[in-house]
Amino acid sequence: MPKINVRDVALYYEIQGKGPETLVFLNGVGMTAPLWKPMVDHFLPQYRCLCHDFRGQLMSDKPEGPYSMEMHVADTLALLDALGIDQAHLIGTSYGSEVAAIFAYTHPQRTRSLTMITGVSEMDAVLRTAVESWATVALSGDSTAFYKSLLPWSYSAEFLESHRDFLEARCREFAQVPKEFFKAFARLVGAFVQINYTHRLKDITCPALIIAAEKDLIKPPRYSELLHREIKHSRYHVVPGSGHAVVVEDPDSLNRLLEDFLRSL
Q1: Is 90 inside any structural domain?
Q2: Domain holding 43: CATH number?
Q3: pLDDT by residue (tens digit) across 119-143?
Q4: pTM check: above 0.90
């Protein structure tokens, strides 16, 4: 398992490909780097692809103490420095898209482009209450209850119905997750609920692609529409039929949208 020490933490990472430009894929809160495989495999012939688990996620260190989105930004910057990557295209989903946006306006010289998939810059009471409930279930230590608490918010009804075997297999995998994962997950949620940076979106000057999912319950398209309005010259697309975890539900649509965007730069 490749890890690299940056700042005060050892981060799990995967880097593949030899293209002249680098795509950095940034995880959703409950993800781990290998879940990007359908997108990484698509772009490997043309790009170098980097994925990593944030501090607190499954395969990276899980230090005690509060986390913040700015901490993830600093970790990501240190990871790029350690790997000798001067500038990158940032592609984030959900939690990772918010890290990517903050990175883009704090380190514009290091950001070639920004892609935000089902991201937000602020939240309402429904979103806040939902993620706080996930943290509560995580702290119970019941891996099955935790995983099942995520499902209705993460996937469309059609996906839940048609992929029962896949979801049950993932549930069994969660039973093997170490207990410290769940405590760290609650700290990740603590970082997320501090998000409130709509006023900084105007400071994002790189090319930007904003992608929403039509059937996203937890971060519905209105959040992405706000991002699109506030980020200058951004592009906006809605993936039809998908729930929030569009990276899992419909990576092919994401690949087409991202490929068109990157070719236009």
Answers
A1: yes
A2: 3.40.50.1820
A3: 999 999 999 999 999 999 999 999 9
A4: yes
